[in-house]
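Predict structure. Chain length: 166.
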Amino acid sequence: TMLHSTLALSLLLIAVTSNLAMAIKKEKRAPQTLSRGWGDEITWVQTYEEGLYQAKKSNKPLMVIHHLEDCQYCQALKKAFAENEEIQEMAQNNFIMLNLMHETTDKNLSPDGQYVPRIMFVDPSLTVRADITGRYSNRLYTYEPQDMMFLIENMKKALRLIQTEL
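Prediction complete.
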């Protein structure tokens, strides 16, 4: 039985160490690269073209977030966006989601300039919704961390407009 208990102990040790290794691995796991911190539960498309294709195919609006890594306003907005459960859930279930760190060639996505952060919606009919704007007249498509309720309203508006117009 000495052998038996040694075996049992080493099996236990193996179990503990592999669980520990799993826990360490989990901690270290880099967030899914396409999310870039905007929400790891969300399925993100990789390119604008893919976003348009998925929006048309699924009949969901496309939400495009333009941002840059070294922009403090983008970082602040990203944090508020990622921490807002209602936004995360809607983004996950009702939208095709894209976040870009470069400009697209589609000029319709920069109707009032190429600033960051900016969030725009594209209808499944592939129309850029220039009518869904934020609160600031000098940068129509920008949102600040305190504007999350406003962004939620705009997301709902983007969903509502599909149902009524198509």
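Summary: The first strand starts at residue 62 and ends at 66.
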